[in-house]
Design a protein that fits this description.
The protein contains 9 helices and 8 strands. The chain has 275 residues and is of the alpha/beta class. Helix 6 links the parallel strand 5 (149-150) and strand 6 (172-174). Bound molecules: zinc ion (ZN). Zinc ion is lined by residues 62-63, 113, 117, 153.
């Protein structure tokens, strides 16, 4: 018995310093891990959101211009001093160059959304090149500028194609973080509600200026976003503000070897399905 007690005492003495040391090390400020974003895959070329310091968002409208709905949207944006990005189809730009001119004159950005909206992931390189090049050319003829951003129809564009388009055209590939599924025409109130509920700072929001109910939703949507304190910028302005995300503060990993293999704490939660 006595023997056992003294053993315990000994053990306590042996353990104490370790405990103290452990406590001390937890209180010692540990330097933040040096972020090396993209070190493994070069500069970032695809964006669905940007990590920004202010309440900046980019509202984007695809598939236009439309003769009827786009001018209506431009009116309500102008009234509120809000800048957005239009990902246009070359075929529509060709048909309505005056609307493209107005978009640019009023401070909006024009992005390339292919010539006539095919599923590019299933097409040959030369066919994809034609889709992108024709659209660049028609926008250049109208505005004197070539788009720097590209959004693949349906978001359908392979990793290899993204890299290729970046190399060949200098494009940043722009996807989205908020999709109200407005093309399914759920009603203007629903479109506004979905965008207002899901939009956060740095997010790119998708909508379509060729659908009347979407444009009907935009006064409420934009006013609601302004009321929440968001600031509207074009996609190129938003991604220019992007900077590496600091690693979230996690408990310092134990260096004593006792830690079991823990799965990366909160890896990949969101990332909803993309059409
Ligand atoms: Zn589209």
């Amino acid at each position: 018995m006595i023997k056992f007690r003294s053993f315990l005492a000994l053990l306590a003495f042996a353990i104490l310093p370790i405990g103290a040391a452990a406590q001390y090390s937890e209180m010692t400020p540990t330097p933040a891990p040096v972020a090396a974003p993209n070190a493994h895959n070069g500069p970032r070329i695809s964006y669905s959101a940007a990590n920004v310091d202010g309440p900046y968002i980019a509202l984007t409208f695809d598939d236009g211009p439309s003769k009827t709905t786009t001018p209506r949207l431009l009116d309500l944006l102008a009234k509120r001093g809000v800048k957005v990005t239009f990902f246009v189809q070359g075929v529509n730009a060709h048909e309505f160059p005056e609307i493209i001119k107005r978009e640019v004159a009023e401070g909006h950005e024009i992005g390339n959304h292919s010539w006539d909206h095919p599923n590019l992931a299933k097409m040959s390189e030369s066919a994809v090149r034609s889709q992108l090049e024709r659209t660049q050319d028609v926008i250049f003829q109208i505005t004197g500028q070539k788009p720097k951003v590209f959004r693949p129809p349906f978001g359908s564009f392979s990793e290899k194609q993204r890299k290729w388009a970046n190399e060949q055209f200098g494009f940043k590939i722009i996807l989205w973080e908020v999709d109200p599924l407005d093309w399914k025409r759920p009603g203007s109130a629903v479109v506004a509600q979905r965008i207002l509920t899901n939009t956060k700072a740095g997010y790119i929001v998708l909508a379509h200026d060729i659908h009347a109910p979407t444009v009907d939703a935009m006064a409420e949507t934009v006013d609601g976003l302004l009321a929440k304190g968001f600031k509207f910028v074009t996609v190129s302005e938003l991604i220019a503000m992007d900077h590496p995300k600091p690693k979230p503060a996690t408990p310092a990993p134990s260096t004593t070897g006792s830690s079991s293999v823990t799965p990366a704490a909160s890896a990949a939660p969101t990332a909803a399905a993309v059409p």
